[in-house]
Design a protein that fits this description.
- The complex is a heterodimer.
- By secondary structure, chain A is α/β, with parallel strands linked by helices.
- Helix content of chain A is 42%, strand content 20%.
- By secondary structure, chain B is an alpha+beta fold.
- Chain B has two domains: 173 residues, no CATH class; 220 residues, no CATH class.
- Chain B is built from 13 helices and 17 strands.
- In chain B, the strands form four sheets. In chain B, strands 1, 3, 4, 7, 8, 9, 11, 12, 16 and 17 form a ten-stranded mixed beta sheet that branches. In chain B, strands 2-15 form a two-stranded antiparallel ribbon.
- In chain B, β5 and β6 form a beta hairpin.
- The two termini of chain B are 24 Å apart.
- Classes of the chains: A alpha/beta, B alpha+beta.
- At the A-B interface, α1, α2 and α3 of A face α1, α11 and α12 of B.
Chain lengths: 246, 421
Amino acid sequence: MDTTKPALQLQDVQFTWPGAALPVIDIPQLQIEQGERVFVRGASGSGKTTLLSLIAAILKPQRGSIVVNAIDITAKEAPQADQFRADHIGLVFQQFNLLPFLSVTENVQLPCKFSPTRRKQAVLSGGSTAKEAERLLDAMQLPKNVYSTASTMRLSVGQQQRVAVARALIGSPKLVIADEPTSALDTDARDAFLKLLFNEVKQSSATLLFVSHDSALATMFDRNIDLQSLNRASTDTQHQAESVDH
Amino acid sequence: MLEIALKSLRNRWLSALLAIIAIAMSVALILTVEKVRRDARTSFTQTVSGTDLIIGARSGSVPLLLYSVFRIGNATNNISWQTVEEIRQRESVKWSIPISLGDSHQGYRVLGTTRDYFNHYRYANDQALTFAKGEATDNVFDDVFDAVLGSEVARQLGYSLDDQIVIAHGTGKVAIVTHDNQPFSVVAVLDPTGTPVDQTIHVSLEGIEAMHVDWRSGMAVPGQATLPEQIRQMDLQPKQVTAMLVGLKSRATVFREQRAINEYRDEPLLAILPGVAIQELWSLVSVAENALIIISSFVVVAGLVNLVSVLFAGLNERRREMGILRASGARPAHIFGLLSAESTLLSLAGVFLGLLLHFAVVGIGSIWAQQLYGLTINIELPRLNDVYVLVAILISGVFVGCLPAWRAYRQSVADGMMQRI
């Protein structure tokens, strides 16, 4: 791995939803270094999820380039983009991150089913994907007796979010994207969650991109980005989006 | 992917089970209908065997077949004894069985015939009639009042050897006039054949005459009651019979003989080839047969539609599931594969369960048919045809499963990373 290369580089990126007149994302420049923990703040409707979808190569911008770990994902066709995501990106959602019909450890091992690279990494680190899953759950301070006996849906929301982090981290992806992962947690659970998240992200030397509308968290990160000032489109579109929301 | 599909299905086991049951029912139905159809056809075509010609008064070939072999309906006319004798003496005729119908006992038909019936009548694949109990063929009908029962008659009416039975005139179950002064006695009971023979009471042609000694023009002569002993002394030579079954020395002469009999000068006669007439009759029945097949096919279609609807109905509530899978690195192709795997598993389970259900139904049905009708229904492995049907259902299941799979694929692309609640 070349640590001198930025983890993420956006250049002149513009994205317009099909059928929309104005772009929702218009970012001239953004660079995030390897291992950085970045807080991206933005109100709902400011294009946060769209930006994450672009970085995760789920959406393709109409203009500009997005380079993740020295790989230009905008140049990739859909199947390669999917494979890139499976191999390089760990995702944590706001809530409902787990498949109810799989056990906790099976949920954590899920990315290894789709990415041979991450499976290899997980085996290298833990001996087997199951052991690596347990190691990560352990690191996220989930007691074994909780996750081995209780069904996935019986876990508290805080526990579920920690399982989701373990899943995002298995197989050591270089970029972890968390989309409002703490919005369903109370303050105590939130702080405990963030501590564990930072620890494990650091352990696997991944870059963390953390999106939230809650500016109270901002101080805990290496760097803060205000999406509204970064995104040239947001000044026009935010008002539209908000008026639609309300 | 298969593992995830299995676990996801287990999570939705109720709707999955219902989908499986719907397919299983349709598979069992179509297999069972097909088997009943095949067995009915077999037993139908095996009712009579070895008989080259059936001869009766001129009518249609199907009515003649129906009353002479299936004991359904009545003859419009008889053939005279003189004709019977003349046909018997024709050079190419090997054997002939005259039969006389028109009387009944408790709803079972009484058939007047000769000893030759037990010697020459064949059913299924050249099977002769055998006696379950009672006299050997050589002694049957030694007495005018001897009766030989089909297995079903003996079983249903609880008759055994030496029982006395009274035979009614006419063929209704509740006969108005009975020939009650001339009781017949059971001298033998036949083994089950699975043909109308089981439902027949056989007496000699003389026995039929004896029943009608005190009758003139279909009416009992008042005050006249001839004793059995007196009847035995009488000349009971039949004057006419209803039909006759003929075996030829060489099958090659069958068409020539048929033509000769159809052009018989003294009496208008009709000779039919049983095989041809049975085919003709079956083609009438096959309308119902086709209706059954069409109905079963619709049931199969309904089962498949149900499968698709179960999968479609699940899609919306499973959007999050798809989102999580995609976030974990599943490609749309994986999502498609997951849904296809589900429909394949459901179809496979449905077809398998349907096969078991079919065997259970046939198994229980065969015990029932054995007890009630003495019919042997074999549980057999599905024929090649059935296998084609099963494979077709399976392929259709997989194919229709692609519709929700495609929808899920489209959805997962459109949803992207969005969390739709």
